[in-house]
Amino acid sequence: xxxxxxxxxxxxxxxxxxxxxxxxxxxxxxxxxxxxxxxxxxxxxxxxxxxxxxxxxxxxxxxxxxxxxxxxxxxxxxxxxxxxxxxxxxxxxxxxxxxxxxxxxxxxxxxxxxxxxxxxxxxxxxxxxxxxxxxxxxxxxxx
Length: 143
Hints:
The protein is of the alpha/beta class. Helices cover 27% and strands 33% of the residues. The protein has one domain (2-142): Nucleoside Triphosphate Pyrophosphohydrolase (Alpha-Beta Complex), CATH 3.90.79. It is built from four helices and eight strands. The strands form two sheets. The protein has a six-stranded mixed beta sheet with strand order 3-1-5-4-7-8, with helices on both faces. Strands 2-6 form a two-stranded antiparallel sheet. The two termini are 19 Å apart.
């Protein structure tokens, strides 16, 4: 299982981070540890990766991602973590060994560089945010 944190800036752009160990970009987040809930994972990973405390991320849904290429199957949870102010963005501190940079980008620029597995589900997560609902997907398709 894994959890992703979706943030926006004041212009509505989405926050992506560039892992040092992958060719594509991701949302902040990571793998769920033993005896840890996906929500707790989201909170922990955001603190570790960005240095930001988020008290109450909002669940957007989940996506069952089947095995593909070198990646194993996964249950991916997505959480909306709010809009970051300019001061919060300026305070972001990335762990240099894990993440090389971050960017806020509009959706049309996010989709080509985001992990292919996350790209399929992202529009559905954003629709869930806009409609105040939850979404369940399998490989990016609503079930």
